[in-house]
Amino acid sequence: MSLKAEDMGNMPEIEKQWAVVAMHHAETYYKILQAMDGKNLKLTKIDDEIYEHFKKMFPEIDVTELNEKDFKTPEAKARWRPFINEYENKVKDFNYGTLLRIRADGDYTEDNTMFATRTQFYCIEISRNKLGYNSPICQKK
């Protein structure tokens, strides 16, 4: 059976399942950051490609503290859409909904989390890891 997202509407069961999967991903990722320095972490087989492409296309985004307008406005979504779609055959679950920390120095909390695609998550977290912004998480533990 093939279902289109636009035909589904808001289904509470599906939303709950998404929330569980997204929270599990967030918890797992944060535990990894606590266990090892992000500088030594590889999130995909093409981290370097994603990082360079992100820097080229979105040089204004400060990965230490994200501004939701860089992701959520109609203009931002129009910029992100073709970028994300370039990873359809390169990154598993490239457009899955994922939780993303707003501030690099914080945990996944209600006021420090926003919704993003998996590709956006990779852009931000690969950058944070390469630049050492996630290193203090491991050092605190």
TrEMBL record:
It comes from the Eukaryota. Residues 14-137 form the Polysaccharide biosynthesis domain. GO terms for cellular component: cytoplasm. Signal peptide: none annotated. Gene3D superfamilies: yst0336 like domain. InterPro entries: PBDC1-like_dom_sf, PBDC1_metazoa/fungi, Polysacc_synth_dom. PANTHER family: PROTEIN PBDC1. This is Polysaccharide biosynthesis domain-containing protein. It comes from Mycoemilia scoparia. The lineage of its organism: Eukaryota, Fungi, Fungi incertae sedis, Zoopagomycota, Kickxellomycotina.
